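Hi V.,

You were right to ask for the full record rather than a summary. Here it is.
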Amino acid sequence: MVPHNQWRRRKEAQQGEFAAFAYDRSAVERFRQAFPRARWDDERKSWFVPGKMAARRIERWLAREAERNDVYGDVKGRDAYDFEPIDSRYLEVGDDLRVRTPYSKSVIEAMREIPWAHWDEDLRVWRVPFRSYEELLRRWPEIEEAARRSEPEERKRRREAQKDSEAQRAASARAAERRRRRYPLPADDLPPLGRPVATKQYGIIVFVELAGEVAEAAALAEYYPHADRTVDHVWGRWRAPTLAELIATWPARREPGPEALSRGWWQPTLAALRVARRNARSFARRQQAKQPASAAAHRTSTH
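Predicted structure:
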């Protein structure tokens, strides 16, 4: 029989409320401090707070957060833009500021550091309120430079310049190694099969086979410098995780320590899982978009 206190805790855990607010790193930290039991729900893109009083507590917290925001922030930001405007083809100005660039990891990292900036999936732009203009202006040189380097013509020019170079040959060798879908693992400390784990070189992956094949010392030295040479390593075969597997994976409470980094695999953190889930969703959308086009082409060819 389940004790009454334990039954009550289970009942309260089933009750609760979802909280959603514009992403801001400091706001997330304050939210986690106020609601230590809250858990992120990737499907609903919001935080779930358990408990019967969750809705009232969330409402009070959001009211306090609203008070923190400078009511004149957008007016000040618009004045700052008028005084020192950004003149760039990557910036559109309307009710807010919209940053549209070619895909670039550097741009994404910079935009995530700007308070209240968020990605608009429908418009395919980063939207920034005027209250964040000064931070956008401060980071704009690195954003614009990264965007220029990501233009198709610039990428092509760099590829042409690197042809037959030592760097190009090394990059080709690394790509060939990745296509082998193998990873060195300490023979006496193997990861679980069929579950997403984080790795040094390839991010979050799922190991599918541990055949016991010994990893060659030359390959370790060339492609996996993290591997501890004092222990024997075997090759583990891997695949990319599915979105469902990433969503079901429980994150680690803390960053990996030196022992896990030396081992080469560890339980992924929430930050790493978010990136992997976002990439998996983008990949699924691209695959979905290709299906109608492929079906239409097939129908045309059959007619």
